[in-house]
Amino acid sequence: GEAAAEAGATAMIDLSDGLGGDLARVAAESVVGFRISGAAVPVAPGATLDDALAGGDDYELCFTAPDADAVAEAFARRGLAAPTRIGEVVDDGLVVATVEGEHHLPGGWEHPVP
């Protein structure tokens, strides 16, 4: 998180509730959309892309930053591997691009309301 902030991150969220749901929260607060490359999303062995997009408990950080070179440099200075770039900020919409075309980004975990 500190390396991302040093690199100029403009938004950051942990993915404990799933990539799709947490990106929807960032999109709503930032009044933007996201176009995610399905091929770039890390998928655990035995899981599917849908699992990776809608599942929770990932405990990874997702962030946006305007300069990919600054991100790579900040992470390298701290001895960290460069983060995985999975998509881009767009004006509107939440989509995931796959070989089959673009699809709505699925939601993540919804906490029950007592």
Question: What this model shows, in words?
Answer:
By secondary structure, the chain is an alpha+beta fold. It contains 4 helices and 6 strands. The strands form 2 sheets. Strands 4-2-5-6 form a 4-stranded mixed β-sheet. Strands 1-3 form a two-stranded antiparallel sheet.
Q: Name the strands of the widest sheet in spatial order.
A: 4-2-5-6
Distance between the termini: 32 Å
From the spread of the alpha carbons, the general shape counts as: globular
Spans of at least 5 consecutive residues whose pLDDT stays below 50 are none
Total helical elements: 4
What percent of residues adopt helix (DSSP H or I)? 25-40%
Average pLDDT taken over every residue: 86
Return the structural class. Answer: alpha+beta
Note the topology.
Blueprint: H1 2-6, E1 11-14, H2 19-30, E2 33-37, H3 49-54, E3 61-64, H4 68-77, E4 87-90, E5 94-98, E6 101-104
Parallel strand pairs: 2-5
Antiparallel strand pairs: 1-3, 2-4, 5-6
Task: Compose a concise summary of this entry.
Helices cover about 30% and strands about 25% of the residues. With about 110 residues, the protein is α+β, with helices and mostly antiparallel strands.
